[in-house]
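New to this. Help decode the following:
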Amino acid sequence: MTTPSQQLRTALDALDAAFAPLSESPITVGGCTYCYTDTDLEALAGPAHTVPEDLISSVADEVTDHWDDFAALYRRLTARIVRLLTTGRLHVDHGLVASRLLAAGCRDWTPREQQALGHVWGAWWRSALHEYPGTDRATGVLETISVCTGSLSPWLAVWAETRTEAADRHFEDALDDWLAVRGLADLRLGFYNELSAGPELLAWLLSLEEGRIGAAQLFEVERIAYS
């Protein structure tokens, strides 16, 4: 039986294959020549696997108006961006990457591309829940995948069913973070607050089995939910 980390590697390889027709075909890339040199633009125009990691990272969080065709460029580099993100080598805010993927139209890409990306999200989430402290905080992974897919509920359901020590410790950290948020009932995720998360999150917390949340924290969750 494969481990969650092995499943993630397999999903990332499948993502590479799904995006290969786009990422490996040379194109013309236009962009801000104040921030990017001709050499940078030439590198971005070549096969995606040859683009230096630091340039991938720069593109991953760059504002959309720095490119003549942001959506096409981001889609073309998605497999590289997502691989670096899920393996802890992309030092860009998780919510920002999710927002950039939305801006690039990820929910309207081809079925093959969407399916491959969805498989990565699922494998990344399970991998994160099986390792503590791990490469990423669970809340960061959850933000990325929920914003991209438009819902928290499927991912929270996986968390509820995953009763590893790592998943429980991630949950303890996450609950501390969530209860420290002023206005938790109105919590929004994504760099531009694209996803309303508060109602789904509170409903899930209240649905958890008895004992999963300590009495004092449960009292606070109920106070927020019913106030």
Summary: The mean pLDDT is 95. DSSP finds eleven helices and two strands in the chain. Residues 216 and 222 are 10 Å apart (CA to CA).
